[in-house]
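pasting input
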Amino acid sequence: GAVVSQHPSWVICKSGTSVKIECRSLDFQATTMFWYRQFPKQSLMLMATSNEGSKATYEQGVEKDKFLINHASLTLSTLTVTSAHPEDSSFYICSARDGAAQETQYFGPGTRLLVL
Amino acid sequence: AQSVAQPEDQVNVAEGNPLTVKCTYSVSGNPYLFWYVQYPNRGLQFLLKYITGDNLVKGSYGFEAEFNKSQTSFHLKKPSALVSDSALYFCAVRDGTGRRALTFGSGTRLQVQP
C-alpha cells in the first residue's frame, strides 16, 4: 500500500518555541492531506485539511495562527505549532488522500509532541 | 453532519475464535466506509474500505466487513482471531459527495487472549 512518512517521530521542546512537523507521501501524489490530533485513549480529531497550492481549511475551534499549515508540493505538507505550550502536547497524525486508490486515506506513523 | 458509533470500548475474544467489532454510521449521502487499526504509539494502518459494489469487503490480515445499508452498519469481522490482532480499531466514514475528511468512531480495543 501507499506510504506516508512523518518527521520527527517525537519531539520535546520548551514552552514558547515553535515546532515543525513534516508529512510526506512517498509513492503517490496527494493533493489533499489532513492533520489530526489524538489525545491518550481517544479517537482522532481532525484539525485541518491541507490543499496543495491553497490555504488550509481549519476545523472549528482550531486556531489557524497557532497551527500553521503549508502544503507546498504534491508530496509534502507541514504543520508548525507556534509558541507551543504544555496543553499542545499530543500525538499529531497526518494522512494523505490517494485519489487513484478510490479516495483511501493513508496515515503517517504520528509525531508525539511534549512541551515542557 | 456525519457520525460514527463504535458501541464497545473493548472486545475480548479467545485466540482461534471469531471476532466482531461493531460500527454504525450516519451520513447524508452515499457512505464511504473504512476500517483502520492502530498499534501502540503508531499511526493508523488501513485495513479495508467500502465504496460501492459487493456488500462483503475483504481486507488485510484476513479481516472482512459487511456493509448493511438498512442497518447503517459496517461491522468488522475475522473468522479466527490471533493474539497479534490485539490493537485499537477505528471505523471511519465520509460522505461520498461532500467533504473529503473522515469522521472517526471512538475506537474499540480488541484483546485476543491466548
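fyi Chain A touches chain B at residues 1, 4, 6, 32, 34, 42-44, 46, 49, 91, 93, 95, 97, 102-110, 112 (CB under 8 Å).
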